[in-house]
Write a structure and sequence with these properties.
Layout: H1 6-74, H2 77-136, H3 140-196
């Protein structure tokens, strides 16, 4: 039976504490990843709901416009023009409301991304600091492993964030073009209807 002396016990305690600290850091990264995935799922559901709401708004606007055209053919010319002007104003207001809600969703998404980036940055700085401390306290192998792991994790996170930002900008551009095309088509249709009047 071998007796343990004080210096070996102290070194064992330090090594165990470092292992526990590394496990805590890795768990924090893991939980951060899980939370980020949950957040992205919620954002996807919110975007789908927004798309469905937008489609229902457009469908209602189409139905309202069809009923307005029927009434227009039965009314006098002056009343019909006034009604068309009111419908155009309502259509513009609806498109403004849709654009405003889209901006609000975009702002909330950017805010959530900023919070997530701060948390990941703080975890990365902690991991780098722990690696530096381990290198200086002669646990070079563990320190270098921790620095390499944290660096590769940060580079992966940066790459994924860049890809998401590029796809988000592309989607925003497509939505903006779609809104512009819809407004142009409505204006052209209304001008054509006004020209058809005797």
């Amino acid at each position: 039976m071998m007796a343990l002396n004080g210096s070996h016990d102290f070194q064992l305690i330090i090594v165990l504490a470092m292992i526990a600290f590394i496990s805590a850091i890795l768990s924090a990264f893991w939980f951060s990843s899980i939370a980020r995935n949950i957040f992205h799922d919620q954002q996807t559901v919110l975007r789908e709901q927004h798309a469905q709401d937008r489609e229902s708004f457009l469908k209602e606007a189409g139905e309202e416009k069809a009923s307005a055209i029927e009434e227009k053919s039965q009314m006098q010319d002056m009343h019909a023009r006034e009604r068309e002007r009111i419908l155009l104003d309502a259509e513009r207001e609806k498109s403004d409301i849709l654009a405003e809600s889209y901006k609000k969703i975009e702002k909330a998404t950017r805010k959530a991304h900023a919070k997530a980036n701060f948390k990941v940055g703080a975890a990365f700085a902690t991991a780098v600091g722990a690696g530096g401390i381990m290198i200086f306290s002669q646990l070079v192998t563990i320190g270098v492993m921790l620095l390499v792991a944290s660096g590769s994790g940060l580079s992966g996170y940066i790459l994924r964030a860049r890809q998401e930002r590029l796809s988000y900008k592309k989607q925003a551009l497509i939505n903006g073009q779609r809104l512009l095309i819809e407004q142009t088509d409505m204006t052209a249709l209304d001008n054509f209807k006004l020209k058809d009047k005797p």
